[in-house]
Amino acid sequence: QVQLVESGGGLVQAGGSLRLSCTLSRRTFTSINNYVMGWFRQTPGKEREFVANIRWSAGDIDYADSVKGRFTISRDNTKNTVFLQMNSLKPEDTAVFYCAASPRAGYSASYYHRATRYDYWGQGTQVTVST
Questions:
Q1: Tens digits of per-residue pLDDT, 103-126?
Q2: Do 113 and 38 touch, CB atoms closer than 8 A?
Q3: HEC readout, 49-70
Q4: What are phi and psi of 75, to 5 degrees?
């Protein structure tokens, strides 16, 4: 069984920063090195949108074009935690942000852009960027 616990959302003015955290706990035999961790976001009436992901073992990183240069994904191996540092936030970044985990790390970067590729999800955390 895998659980993802998120934290760090909130209200911030445009141009500000927030850091989201996602801690992975699991009771499976799948090595953590087989995981790809992703961040998605969702606004009402829309599908979940890929934001960023990171392969736990190699640290390979991929971003959506809309956040490149502003968001940074990273991991802390000692704490089984993935972070999303969000800088230069814009009102259009307002969404519920979700952490996700896939236990299958052998595919191309674009494979992990789709929410359906992930087996486990966090509870979501609201990020609101005001003008």
A1: 998 898 899 999 999 999 999 999
A2: no
A3: EEEEEEECCCCCEEECCCCCCC
A4: -140, 155
